[in-house]
């Protein structure tokens, strides 16, 4: 077990956001958290990352590094692709030479000296992923990283992501049911705000997955009916 979340509650004034959320994350799995927009998915991710504090509850997590990929990529505009990755490595006291290896891993060879403004949305998100995994995180948190991409780019990035993060422990937040079924080993379904866990579903399909197979569509229908 990489992470255990027990009875997490969070409110902002009178607005109750999380209402006793509990689940476990296994070593080496991709766990997707699915729920409607505004149900508290991002808040939960920030609590796991230590960016925010829960009002009550407990999180048990193994010691180690946490990587975070945000929906808005947050690249440093004055640094190149390579420079953005080197900056993160340097801030962690790690060897900056690893940056070129990360550029190759995410398929951006030849774009090392490009600045963010010259990159497409998908390419910028690749840099964001490269920065997060460059520190070799024990846990990778991803907050709807492909939400702002067009449909075709989004599907390509989902496919690439499975290659890039193979073997990593990942919590991936999304409101896209197709994305969750394509990526996840298990899916945690949250209710409307205040969020509770409605169900946890094992996705028993080999990867890469056929999005139009009957079993794939059956999982999508099952999750849709629970939301």
UniProtKB/TrEMBL annotation:
InterPro entries: AAA+_ATPase, ABC_transporter-like_ATP-bd, ABC_transporter-like_CS, ABC_transporter_ATP-bind, P-loop_NTPase. One of its GO terms (molecular function) is ATP hydrolysis activity. Residues 3-217 form the ABC transporter domain. SMART domains: AAA. Keywords: ATP-binding, Nucleotide-binding, Transport. CDD domains: ABC_NrtD_SsuB_transporters (cd03293). The keyword Oxidoreductase does not apply. This is ABC transporter ATP-binding protein. It comes from Geoglobus ahangari. The lineage of its organism: Archaea, Methanobacteriati, Methanobacteriota, Archaeoglobi, Archaeoglobales.
């Amino acid at each position: 077990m990489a992470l255990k979340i027990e009875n997490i509650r969070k409110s902002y004034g009178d607005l109750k956001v999380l209402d006793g959320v509990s689940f476990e994350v296994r070593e080496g799995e991709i766990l997707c958290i699915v729920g409607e927009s505004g149900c508290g998915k991002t808040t939960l991710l920030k609590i796991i990352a230590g960016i925010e504090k829960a009002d009550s509850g407990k999180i048990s997590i193994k010691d180690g590094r946490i990587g975070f990929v945000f929906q808005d990529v947050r690249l440093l505009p004055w640094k190149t692709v390579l420079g953005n990755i080197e900056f993160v490595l340097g801030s962690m006291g790690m060897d900056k030479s690893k940056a070129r290896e990360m550029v190759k891993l995410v398929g951006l060879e030849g774009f090392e000296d490009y600045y963010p403004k010259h990159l497409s949305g998908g390419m910028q998100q690749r840099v964001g992923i490269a920065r997060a995994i460059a520190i070799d995180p024990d846990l990778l948190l991803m907050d709807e990283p492909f939400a702002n991409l067009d449909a075709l780019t989004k599907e390509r990035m989902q496919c690439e992501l499975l290659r890039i993060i193979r073997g990593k422990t990942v919590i991936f937040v999304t409101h896209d049911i197709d994305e969750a079924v394509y990526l996840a080993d298990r899916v945690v379904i949250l209710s409307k705000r205040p969020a509770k866990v409605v169900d946890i579903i094992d996705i028993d399909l080999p990867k890469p997955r056929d999005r139009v197979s009957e079993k794939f569509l059956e999982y999508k229908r099952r999750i849709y009916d629970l939301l």
